[in-house]
Amino acid sequence: GSHPINASYGGDSNFTASYDNTLTQLVNQASTTTAIQSSLNPSVFGQPITFTVTVNATAPGAGTPTGTVQFFDGATLIGSGSLTGGIGSSPAISSLSAGSHSINASYGGDANFSASYNNTLSQQVNQASTNTSIQSSLNPSVFGQPVTFTATVNATNPAAGTPTGTVQFFDGATLIGSGSLTGGIASSPAISSLSAGSHLINASYGGDTNFSASYNNTLSQQVNQASTTTSIQSS
Questions:
Q1: Do residues 86 and 199 touch, judged by C-beta distance below 8 A?
Q2: Residue 178 and residue 151: Cα distance in Å, rounded?
Q3: 193 class by beta-carbon count within 10 Å (0-12 exposed, 13-18 middle, 19+ buried)
Q4: 231 Cβ contact list (under 8 Å, min separation 6)
Q5: pLDDT tens digits, residue range 141-159?
Q6: Smallest Cα–Cα separation from 73: which of 94, 46, 54, 55?
Q7: Which one of 20, 21, 80, 88 is most buried, counting C-beta atoms within 10 A?
Q8: Beta strands in 27-98 (DSSP E)
Q9: Are 150 and 185 in contact (CB under 8 A)?
Q10: How much is the pTM?
């Protein structure tokens, strides 16, 4: 800002006092630089990430900037943080979709320090790994009895979230049905065509934008022969 600087001479035994207030000192805001870092890069979908910004004064300016930093994924605001000792952090963010993200940090400045901006961080978010489990509604069953197979698809630690998409069910290499995931769970239609004997039932999850494919072939479905009754009549 602008400062009126005054000089006051108190005089001595031979000289009288005098005073001057003709100097206006202009002090401009100090320029700043903003640096940004990620707590984990690359990360996987659903894994919490924190972005940290350090704001420094640019020479010949000096001191410690205060104020607020905003964090953007492209043009989308994803968080903000207050500077302490020139450092500000975002909240933990786990919502970034799989892919590459241009993370921007914008420092708004304060009374003594000017605003600055950084868009040099490319955050890579990889697809989350998954595991697929499979269950039978009835095992063993008998020939002709309807059986439903259910697959549960979960994110593998440290990923988080709920997979979407489709699960296909196979009897060996033969497709016997499919179902869409709801809340991470998908079921086959009721199947009554499995022949008597042992069947290796497979569940194959195809993945989605944020979650990778996974597969399970651990279910052995036993289909027993159906019992019969025989009646006889005479003419």
A1: no
A2: 10
A3: exposed
A4: none
A5: 999 999 999 999 999 999 9
A6: 94
A7: 88
A8: 32-38, 43-44, 51-57, 68-73, 76-82, 87-89
A9: yes
A10: 0.84
